[in-house]
Structure formats: structure tokens, C-alpha cells
Write a structure and sequence with these properties.
The longest helix has 26 residues. The protein has two domains: about 220 residues, Rossmann fold, CATH 3.40.50; about 290 residues, Ribokinase (UDP-N-acetylmuramoyl-L-alanine:D-glutamate ligase, 3-Layer(aba) Sandwich). The protein has about 525 residues and is α/β, with parallel strands linked by helices. Strand 13, helix 12 and strand 14 form a beta-alpha-beta unit. Helices cover about 40% and strands about 15% of the residues. The protein is built from 20 helices and 18 strands. The strands form two sheets. Strands 1-9-18-17-16-15-14-13-10-11-12 form an eleven-stranded mixed beta sheet, sandwiched between helices. A seven-stranded parallel beta sheet has the order 4-3-2-5-6-7-8, with helices on one face. The relative contact order is 0.09.
Length: about 525
């Protein structure tokens, strides 16, 4: 089951062009189908659509052409919208002009508006509309709106009407991750063929309202272009990756994972990651901790095994623990390292050695990532074992040596570049977590919520993903594609558990422990068709 492609403005234009050039589907038919889907969407929202006052605001491009087709669809059903054209009729061209002429020849009319004074006069009447369709601008803009367009957007946003945006809210940049520009605030957005970057990753998600992705005739084969390397994860896709639960299974079938974590004052990090690994389905979980905290860690959960290793007076791993740890990891299926380790010199040296010499898939989080600040040239495994990194933006900033504020607007390309250059699987935790693989594809998890921005949440993710790596490895699933699937399942499951937990306890009270407690329900939601 494939993921959904997320396209740039250039890529969707390419798909539209190839639809006509290679497959003989005229662009006029794509516009017709777009307008029909707009009507169908409105009809879903309003059973009494024929009794509603509707305004359709059209630009002179294809976005406006979609709005004209919608107007014609409404008129055919004896619903008469008011159509505002922010242009002279003579300035409209292409398929939009053809549809406009058809509309006018049928006896209908449009209201031409070409300057702000005209609009200010007209806008006084906008409070009477029940529905406003924003067909003003599409995916092609790249600078903030001004003049007439900014006035129109302000009028729409001041209205109490239901606002439906065509393709993208006017004012939003299709390829941008950052908000802050004047944008139509819609209750719903209908986009065509595939979501665009802003639909999924732009900070101003409220402007979109509910996103509807509809097909308009482009063959799905056109989306299989390997250059289209940004993907939206789907429930069906994740379900297809889950290993089956065989009736004659024993705990060895579900892997033995190790979690190298904890230090004095941060024993909870070890327990959180270990508990999450158990809830995710690992057959056996061993917490490798400094001996100074072993008794504390062992007292939390009976199902967790512990190994205490030599520690410093500060309660962190001592250098003498290195060889013992490498020996302990030899018979494990996967390991996670980092939560709560601290940044003592001896601990950092241990991390470097373990990452270089380990003979199993290894996930690095928290202080295991901080250990490579300014030293990413050491971020490699001599045995060819996969490395999975799970930084938040601050940790990623330290790895790159660049300020966080520079990273966020470019996080997709930077995550992709880092994964390819270092040959690692990178999980960049943030709004819409990204997963970048060495082959260059990037995946976006659509789940998660603001309540998950709290202490220990990364520790739970470490345990969850490490557990999946171990489960896959115990079944001999260790190819690069298997590693990717295990990581994708882990990230999605963690986010889904967070959303389920938030439904029960609310966003403001959500804790990492709540997410762990809901991992079982997340599995059920994936496999048992629960709501």
C-alpha cells in the first residue's frame, strides 16, 4: 500500500501537463472535474444548498476557471450564485476563458472588479452571504498579497460565511512551511490530485480548515515519479507493514531489545523508554543503566530486566562500561541509546565507541545525538549496521551546526540531505514529524498533537521505534526497506497513541506515560477497525 505523494507547485503543474501530453486527457476536462468536485463538496456540507446565498470570487487564472465551472454546476441545479471576477473578462485566457464564455453565453453574468474602490463598495454587501467560495489564487503565488487582493482576503475573513477555498487558501504559498502572511481562513479546502507541501506542513493549518483531496483525472502512475520524494503516511500503509501475530509465537519471535539510558536524576528516562518498548510488543526488554541507579530503575516495572554497568561518581556511565555494554548487545536484536545519559566525557566516549562497534540496528536519541555535536564525521557504524536518529529541532540544530530558526523553514530538504549524506534514517520530531531515509525519500506523519510537547515524549518514541526494530529483526527483516518500515510503524504508532490519549485526558494534561498506556489502543485502532 503506497503513501500519498505530497507535491510542489512545479510538480503538480508537471503532472497536469503530462496528463494531457502523454495520456490525451484535455486540461479542460481536468477543470470540469475540479468544478464538479467543488459542487459535490459543498453539497456534502449543506443539504439545503439551494436555499443558501453563495458568492464565488474568481481570479483570472485556472483557479478562477474552477470557480466558474462550479458556478455553472450550481446554475444547472437552479442555484444562482453571485460571481465576482477580479479582472476584466478580456484578460482571462485558456481553459478559464473558455468556461467563462460558456457561462456568459448561457445568460449568466459576472461582476467585474478591478480596483479597491469598487471592491470597498461591493464588500459592504458581503455580510449577507452564507457561503463564500475562494477561487481567487492558486498554487503559483510567491509573495504576500497587496492592493485589491489583500482587500478581498480581508473581506472574506471578516465575513461569518462558510468559506471554501479552491486548491489552496488564497495568499498561502504552496511550497512554504511558514505562515504569517495574509491568507484566506477557510472552513474547508478542496485540492486536486495530491496534497501540496503547504497543505501538510505549513504552520498555518487553521487557514485550510478541513482538507479534501480529490482526483480529477490524472493517472495515478504519473505520481510514481521517483523525483516526487515527499510522502504522506496513511493508516492503510502502516497496517500493511505490521508483522503478523502467529498463533504459535513465543517471546523470541518478538525480539529482545536493549535500551542504554539513564543517569542519576534521570532514571525515569530509562523506565519510560523500557515501558514503551514492552507496550509496543517486544518479547524481552533489558535496560542497560549505570549501576548507581540500577536499584531505582529495577523497582519501577517487574517486566523490565536491568543490567547495571560501571558508573562515574556523577552517576553516569564510566568508560569501563564500554566493553561490557558491547558484549551485552551482541545477543540482542536492536538497541536504543541516549535518553537521560548525560554529557560527561566518559559517557560521550562510550557512545562514540558503541555507535561505531555495535553489531545490531541502533537508534540514537537525546544525549547520544548530543555526543556527536561538531563530530558528525564519527556518525558511522564499522559493521554496516543501520543507524536511526530521532532528533528534535534543537538536537538537529546541534548536529548541523546551524541555528534552529534557519532549519525549520527548510527542514524537509535538510532532513533529506542529512539522511543521504550520512546513510542514516532520520526522524525529525516536530510539527508533522519527518522520516528521511538514505535513499532520499521523506515521509510525513500526519498524526500527533500539541499535548505531546512535554517531558519524556521522546523517550517513549525511542522505546517504541526500538521495539519495532527488534520485532522486525527477530523475524529476519533487516533490509534497508525493512528498517524503513519498522521506523515508519513506530513513529505512526507513537503519534496515534498520543492522539488517542489526548481524546481521553485532554491536551493540557497529556503526559508521556499516557502515550505509553495508549499504545495498545493504537494497535487496536490499526488492526481491529476501531474508530
Amino acid at each position: 500500500m503506497p503513501s500519498i505523494k505530497i507535491l510542489t507547485a512545479r510538480q503538480i503543474n508537471q503532472v497536469d501537463h503530462l496528463t494531457s501530453e502523454q495520456h490525451g486527457i484535455p486540461s479542460s476536462l481536468l477543470m470540469e472535474n475540479a468544478g464538479l468536485h467543488l459542487y459535490k463538496t459543498l453539497a456534502k456540507y449543506f443539504e439545503d444548498l439551494d436555499s443558501r446565498l453563495i458568492a464565488i470570487i474568481c481570479g483570472k487564472g485556472n483557479n478562477g476557471g474552477d470557480g466558474i465551472v462550479l458556478a455553472r454546476q450550481l446554475v444547472q441545479r437552479k442555484i444562482n450564485p453571485d460571481v465576482y471576477l477580479l479582472s476584466k473578462v478580456t484578460d482571462v485566457s485558456g481553459d478559464a476563458r473558455a468556461n467563462l464564455e460558456t457561462y456568459l453565453k448561457s445568460g449568466e453574468e459576472v461582476i467585474e472588479v478591478t480596483d479597491t474602490r469598487e471592491w470597498e463598495r461591493i464588500s459592504e454587501e458581503f455580510s449577507r452571504y452564507d457561503i463564500i467560495v475562494d477561487a481567487l489564487l492558486g498554487t503559483g503565488i510567491s509573495k504576500p498579497l497587496e492592493g485589491l487582493y489583500s482587500k478581498v482576503v480581508a473581506t472574506v475573513n471578516q465575513s461569518k460565511a462558510f468559506v471554501l477555498s479552491v486548491d489552496i487558501p488564497s495568499g498561502m504559498f504552496s511550497d512554504s512551511l511558514t505562515g504569517g502572511v495574509p491568507t484566506v481562513q477557510a472552513e474547508a479546502t478542496v485540492t486536486f490530485t495530491a496534497p501540496k507541501i503547504a497543505h501538510i506542513l505549513n504552520e498555518d493549518q487553521k487557514a485550510l480548515g478541513k482538507l479534501h483531496i480529490v482526483p480529477i483525472g490524472s493517472p495515478t502512475s504519473l505520481l510514481e515519479n521517483p523525483e516526487y520524494d515527499l510522502n504522506l503516511l496513511t493508516r492503510e500503509q502502516i497496517c500493511s507493514y505490521l508483522p503478523p501475530q502467529e498463533i504459535r509465537s513465543h517471546k523470541g519471535h518478538f525480539g529482545h531489545v536493549a535500551l542504554v539510558s539513564g543517569s542519576r536524576g534521570k532514571s525515569g528516562a530509562a523506565v519510560l523508554s523500557g515501558s514503551a518498548a514492552l507496550r509496543t510488543g517486544s518479547g524481552l526488554v533489558t535496560l542497560c543503566v549505570p549501576e548507581a541507579i540500577q536499584d531505582v530503575v529495577a523497582s519501577f516495572q517487574a517486566e523490565l530486566m536491568t543490567e547495571g554497568l560501571p558508573s562515574t561518581p556523577q552517576g553516569t556511565f564510566a568508560s569501563q562500561a564500554t566493553d561490557q555494554l558491547l558484549e551485552l548487545l551482541q545477543d540482542k536484536d536492536a538497541a536504543g541509546i541516549g535518553p537521560g545519559l548525560g554529557r560527561e566525557r566518559e559517557t560521550v566516549d562510550l557512545i562514540h565507541t558503541v555507535v561505531n562497534k555495535a553489531t545490531l540496528p541502533l537508534l540514537l536519541d537525546a544525549d547520544a545525538l548530543n555526543a556527536f555535536e561538531g563530530k558528525t564525521n564519527k556518525l558511522q557504524n564499522d559493521n554496516g549496521q543501520p543507524l536511526i536518529l530521532t532528533p528534535h529541532p534543537g538536537e538537529f540544530s546541534r548536529l548541523l551546526g546551524r541555528p534552529t530558526q534557519e532549519i525549520l523553514p527548510k527542514k524537509v530538504e535538510l532532513a533529506r540531505q542529512f539522511a543521504q549524506e550520512k546513510g542514516v534514517w532520520l526522524v525529525l520530531k516536530s510539527f508533522r514529524t519527518l522520516i528521511a531515509e538514505p535513499a532520499g525519500q521523506v515521509f510525513v506523519c500526519p498524526l500527533g498533537n500539541p499535548g505531546m510537547a512535554t517531558a519524556g515524549m521522546g523517550d517513549v518514541l525511542t522505546g517504541t521505534v526500538t521495539s519495532l526494530l527488534g520485532i522486525f529483526a527477530a523475524r529476519g527483516m533487516t533490509t534497508p526497506n525493512d528498517i524503513l518500515q519498522a521506523v515508519l510503524v513506530g513513529v505512526y504508532l507513537h503519534s496515534l497513541a498520543g492522539d488517542l490519549a489526548a481524546l481521553e485526558v485532554g491536551l493540557r494534561a497529556l503526559t508521556a506515560g499516557d502515550v505509553t498506556a495508549h499504545l495498545g489502543k493504537a494497535y487496536q485502532a490499526l488492526t481491529e477497525e476501531l474508530p
